[in-house]
Amino acid sequence: NLKMGIVGLPNIGKSSLFNLLSESAQADAENYPFCTIDPNTTRCAVPDKRYDTLTDIWKPPSMYPAYLHLVDIAGLIKGASEGAGLGNAFLSHIQAVD
Description:
This protein is α+β, with helices and mostly antiparallel strands. It is built from three helices and three strands. Strands 1-3-2 form a three-stranded mixed β-sheet, with helices on one face. The longest helix is centred in the middle third of the chain and has 10 residues, at 49-58. It is elongated, with a radius of gyration of 17 Å. The model has no long low-confidence stretch (mean pLDDT 81).
């Protein structure tokens, strides 16, 4: 399992990309700064034909497909390292992903 963070400047489409990848409208995709304060998270299965073929051949008692954990992180602004915007909270959200 991989935990991926979507990071970038404010108002460039991070939440829209998050909604597209997660196939949901879970994250608010609005056109104003700091629409995303708390990170949005979701989990989506990664389809793999090789995995399906192997499970069809061996028929294991349980199957655990690969999942991608997506995290929509608030926009990065100038001075975040000095506390501007979300400051240290922003940096801790980035540190929490792979």
